[in-house]
């Protein structure tokens, strides 16, 4: 039913070996302008400021997620049997396109636009772009079906579980890929074992056989380590903090007349919806150029913050205590630097697996040897301890290094 490519296309990938493409609709999506845009957006917002090799992009991650989904729908016997050909193509496309709406600097940008990237992914898939046409030409109505899987509103919950739940193709690819490119070996886990032990319960719920529970524990630990060592590294958060301060300043200066600001940043400071044509131009190449322009700006705060981003002169960080905050505020006042832009606060907490919130679909279920189904934290002592121990959090403040707040 779906047209095939004239030969199997193979893309070499350091995480998966080869990524295989056999369907024309997938190949055409990869070659669309919107998908190629992902080459200009890195996978990790500020983490490449800490891990210098973490230069990999949303493009390679998206291909990786597609490959994990492709393997699930062609190698896991329960899934092969449960899905129609159309569902298989829809879920592969959803894996490929789930991050299509990511803006520059990863999640740092979502708080600037106040919009989750999934929302843009669905708009790009449905609002008449090159991707919309490719999907609907392959099968009428397919664009909406793909967006439904990403939104978790499709008729078959299994498809959304495959792409994004708590044990899914998205997370498996980004953990392995980020571990590889940052060089953090303990981010690795045994994906092959997880794929071998995946099953379907009641025709609509992914479960893992009890013999795969050690591989799942390993995956949860990998998530735990990657969060604290990479995603929440204070230097990466410092980068985000300077970025936010710059956009706060730009919004303040240009709220009344965004047209006075560098073109690509208009949509970010105006209040109102961002058009897809404007969004398309926002990538890390165009932002990098704009930051260099802003480093020559007439406003000293804009100039300073833009230069800090360009040259990696990031803020210093310290544990947040009332005494430390008072000390930094005093030093900033002495230096004539407004705390509004030069004192950042950020608190993060993370639990690598959340058994009791979220939908039933997104929890991890284990099929025990006697055939009963257990939720992961009931089947694993390690995961039980992680989810019942105190929640790990980290409360930091960020400020310019040169104010010497240690005095
Ligand atoms: Ni993703």
Please provide a brief summary of the model.
Helices cover 52% and strands 13% of the residues. By secondary structure, it is of the alpha+beta class. The N and C termini lie far apart (72 Å).
Kindly describe this structure.
It is a single chain. This protein has 407 residues and is of the alpha+beta class. The protein folds into two domains: 4-232 and 357-390, Hypothetical protein af1432 (Orthogonal Bundle), CATH 1.10.3210; 241-349 and 395-403, Growth Hormone, Chain: A (Up-down Bundle). The protein contains 22 helices and nine strands. The chain has helices at 24-30, 33-36, 58-75, 77-82, 85-97, 108-113, 117-126, 130-138, 142-151, 157-163, 169-182, 191-197, 213-231, 234-254, 266-269, 276-280, 284-294, 300-311, 322-335, 339-342, 376-379, 381-388, and strands at residues 4-13, 17-23, 198-201, 205-209, 316-319, 344-350, 365-367, 373-375, 392-399. The strands form three sheets. It has a four-stranded mixed β-sheet. A three-stranded antiparallel β-sheet has the order 5-9-6, sandwiched between helices. Helix 3 (58-75) packs antiparallel against helix 5 (85-97) and helix 5 (85-97) packs across helix 9. The longest helix has 21 residues, at 234-254. The chain is globular. It starts with a strand and ends in an 8-residue tail after the last strand. The chain binds nickel (II) ion. Nickel (II) ion is lined by residues 61, 65, 98-99, 170, 174. The site of nickel (II) ion (NI) has 6 residues, from helix 3 and helix 11.
């Amino acid at each position: 039913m779906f047209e095939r490519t004239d030969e199997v296309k193979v893309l070499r990938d350091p995480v998966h070996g080869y990524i295989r493409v056999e369907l024309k609709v997938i190949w055409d999506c990869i070659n669309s302008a919107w998908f190629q845009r992902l080459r200009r957006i890195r996978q990790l917002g500020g983490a490449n400021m800490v891990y210098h090799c973490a230069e990999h992009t949303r493009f390679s991650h998206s291909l990786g997620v597609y490959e994990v989904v492709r393997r699930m729908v062609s190698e896991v016997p329960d899934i092969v049997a449960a899905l129609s050909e159309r569902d298989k193509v829809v879920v592969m496309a959803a894996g490929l396109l789930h991050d299509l709406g990511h803006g520059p600097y990863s999640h740092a940008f979502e708080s600037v636009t106040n919009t989750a990237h999934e929302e843009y992914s669905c708009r790009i898939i449905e609002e008449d772009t090159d991707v919309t046409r490719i999907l609907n030409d392959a099968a009428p109505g397919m664009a909406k079906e793909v967006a439904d899987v990403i939104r978790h509103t499709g008729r078959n919950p299994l498809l959304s579980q495959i792409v994004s739940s708590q044990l899914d193709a998205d997370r498996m690819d980004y953990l392995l890929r980020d571990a590889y490119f940052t060089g953090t070996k303990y981010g690795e886990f045994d994906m092959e074992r997880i794929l071998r032990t995946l099953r379907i319960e009641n025709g609509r719920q992914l479960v893992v056989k009890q013999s795969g529970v050690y591989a799942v524990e390993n995956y949860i630990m990998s998530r735990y380590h990657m969060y604290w060592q990479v995603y929440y590294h204070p230097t990466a958060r410092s980068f985000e903090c300077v970025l936010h301060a710059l956009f706060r300043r730009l919004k303040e200066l240009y709220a009344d007349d965004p047209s006075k600001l560098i073109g690509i940043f208009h949509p970010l400071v105006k209040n109102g919806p961002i058009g897809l044509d404007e969004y398309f131009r926002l990538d890390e190449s165009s932002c990098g150029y704009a930051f260099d322009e802003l480093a020559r700006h007439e406003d000293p705060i804009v100039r300073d913050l833009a230069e800090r981003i360009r040259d990696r002169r990031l803020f210093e960080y310290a544990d947040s205590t009332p005494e430390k905050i008072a000390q930094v505020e005093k030093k900033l006042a002495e230096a004539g630097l407004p705390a509004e832009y030069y004192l950042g606060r950020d608190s993060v907490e993370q639990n690598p697996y959340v058994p009791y919130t979220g939908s039933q679909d997104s929890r991890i279920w284990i099929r025990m040897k006697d055939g009963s189904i257990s939720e992961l934290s009931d089947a694993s002592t390690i995961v039980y301890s992680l989810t019942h121990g105190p929640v790990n959090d980290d409360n930091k403040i960020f400020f310019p290094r040169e104010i010497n707040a240690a005095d």
